[in-house]
Amino acid sequence: MSENLVLEHLRAIRADIQALHDDNREVKARVNEVYSAVLSLRRDQAQDADTTHRVQVAVDGLKERIERIERRLDLRDA
């Protein structure tokens, strides 16, 4: 009788450990998804910074050209 009780407890413990193992596997999968999403966001952020820099360089160039044109045509306000 006591052998059956020990076996029942061991089976219950084994089932609990398996449930924990399954939960742990799910948590790891979700952490990997979050990690991938963060990497993607960082990559997008770097691309956005690069695009912003390129646009700023273009705007600066246009600003210089407009100022040069204004000077040549004597259109600048005193």
Q: What are the SSEs and their pairings?
A:
Blueprint: H1 2-72
Major sheet details: none
Q: State the separation between the terminal residues, measured CA to CA.
A: 106 Å
Gross geometry: rod-shaped
Determine the structural class based on helices, strands and strand pairing.
mainly alpha
- The Rg value, from CA coordinates, equals 33 Å
Number of strands: 0
Query: How much helix is in the residues?
Result: over 70%
Tally of separate helices: 1
Secondary-structure element series? H
Query: Percent of residues in beta strands?
Result: under 5%
Provide the descriptors you would attach to this structure in a database record.
78 residues, mainly alpha, 1 helix, 91% helix, 0% strand, rod-shaped
Describe the structure.
The protein is mainly alpha-helical. It is built from one helix and no strands. It has one helix at residues 2-72. The longest helix is centred in the middle third of the chain and has 71 residues, at 2-72. The radius of gyration is 33 Å and the shape is rod-shaped. 0% of the residues are buried.
In short:
The protein is an all-alpha fold and 78 residues long. It contains one helix and no strands.
